[in-house]
Structures
1.
Amino acid sequence: MFHTVLCDLLGIELPILMGAMQGAGKPRLVAAVSEAGGLGVLPTYGEREADLVRQIEETRALTTKPFGVNITPLGAKFTERRAAICIEMGIPIVTTGLGDPGPRAVGDLRAAGIKVIPVVPTVRHALRLEAEGADAIVASGSEAGGHVGQVATLPLLPMVIDAVKVPVVAAGGIGDGRGFLAALAMGAAGIQLGTRLICTEESAGGAWYARQILATSEEGTIVSKSLTGKTVRAFATPEVKAYEAARLSGATAEELKQMERNIRQGRHQDDAYDGHHQAVVGQIAGMLNDPACIKPAAEVIREIVADAQRMADRLAKVVAS
Ligand SMILES: Cc1cc2nc3c(=O)[nH]c(=O)nc-3n(C[C@H](O)[C@H](O)[C@H](O)COP(=O)(O)O)c2cc1C
């Protein structure tokens, strides 16, 4: 029932992509999502070249199903080197993070037969990347965890669908069967999940990450430049909130830099760390409150599909009556 053009394009059973997740999205989770019929995606942001190669090999040892690699465009050299690794290692699908990978990297990847799927925050970016040769587009709303633009998924998705001819995938704020079905109903060819997959048994995020998500309400995230220098949705810790308050009340560049240094020290800490973990997360953290939601990724995906199926059946009856 949920077989879409995206499934045919990528050779997958379910139109569900794993959003690349620096920190949480290591080979175990990538393989689990692909084994469940979706598309697992490895991040390259923060990964050294040798680590990426090792993680591709590790993922291949865990699944024979297709999986992708995400390239966050951090300058032409970084993007082109990561693209070369994907080509050398025969990766079938590359997604690119917020930002423009540039026509050269997209051209090289496509010339090697790799499907390229950029993640975009606006119609303008969608049109540019379609013109550069993208095979599909992920429209990512501001509810998402990670780097975000200013437009929410509900308005962004139909506008991108209207603007481009290639299949469009919805990302940002989707955490269950309701979001999946709504995205398909709006014309999306599939969805991309990030935050929901941090609360899985295969996530490499660490126990504190899932705990912090369980304790976070829908108001517990904030968009700030303090973590990476670009607008990122993250946990609204006291430090990040203080940074944003200082920024709005005219703190000097030097004062803000000092605060950024402290915040960035709080990233990627282990469970023994007694300060505030600074990490990215989406607004659907507010939907995840019950420790029982931490389960194998395959189960999460099965439930999303089964719930969407039930709701589609119910909706069909409502429409028919
Ligand atoms: C912990 C985390 C790390 C992320 N890292 C990346 C990344 O390295 N590259 C990228 O393109 N997107 C990254 N994202 C964005 C996700 O791939 C995905 O598009 C987003 O999480 C979808 O929104 P959601 O969190 O509401 O599901 C990250 C998101 C999270 C939550």
2.
Amino acid sequence: MTDTALRGESQQPDGPAVLEDVPGWFWDHDRHSFEWFLGRQAKDGVTGDLMELGAYLGRSAIVIGEYLNPGETFTVCDLFDSDAPDDENSSEMNISYRKTLTRSAFETNYLAFHEELPEIIQAPTSVLAGGRVPAGAYRFIHIDASHLYEHVADDLRVARTALQEQGVVVLDDYRAQHTPGVAAATWEAVFNHGLKPIMLTECKFYGTWGDPEPFQRDLLDRVDLASGCYLSTETLNGRQLLRMTGDSTGIGPFRGSRHVQRLGGGHPESRGSLRTAQDEAALDLAVRRARAAEARRPVNVAKRAARDLLPPVVTSAIRRARRG
Ligand SMILES: C[S@@+](CC[C@H](N)C(=O)[O-])C[C@H]1O[C@@H](n2cnc3c(N)ncnc32)[C@H](O)[C@@H]1O
């Protein structure tokens, strides 16, 4: 969550066609990073459960759910339309989420991309403490619920117990001015509770209680890393950590939802061809939206929006279309 405007098109009446239709605070670099960590686990045959604390309308959950294997569980914990457990959390909810958030909107968005819902716990994340979550069962946990110190520190304690040895935890907003509680809880876990940073992006911290070096080696070797992602190394208290910066070059669009088919995806028979048709339709939709946005906006704003919002494959398609 950032204090800048919520990224995401308005909710589409029939459900989202592309991931960008789902409002949220989940940018390309982090989507690519989630896909990188989860894709690496898939390649290495790592199995285990997945968890997201704080799902909002599903933008990041939809991406995590893409990596769920048969027999594994994806647990999502969010208050959705329930009451917050304390006044501070309640005002956080009122300021940032209340106007738009319902559990049913989350479910509609999620089911546009997946056959089945994750396991939903509609409650404060504090209910996960005290043994509700099986120890060592999880391979990936995204902490993005309350951004208040006490809550994040508790969420980190849950994650530490829940993760398997080489499991990955991701913390949202570990460095924003309006979320000092996340920064405090994150670095407290690093300095006092054995959490090891793997990589930092502008918005998220990626870490493990296991060994960060194998992840860092593959990142530095650029295994499956998009060309626009630049890595630099830092040393923090004797340990290496990586920083990712750059642009969206080489980060393809997330596949389209089932609603993309009404835009011309047809009725492909296999999952593979479904993806191809959906990707093409998603690309087509993104190009048409960018053209419409360009027609509406002053030139410099449109250029900036296209550069910030669109994957390079789309921007080059727009350039080709303009030349044509
Ligand atoms: C920043 S949003 C999550 C954004 C989402 N991960 C994304 O990338 O689109 C934070 C979410 O945390 C939920 N939340 C806030 N406090 C919570 C708490 N104490 N327990 C569970 N969920 C909470 C809010 O309802 C909201 O949906």
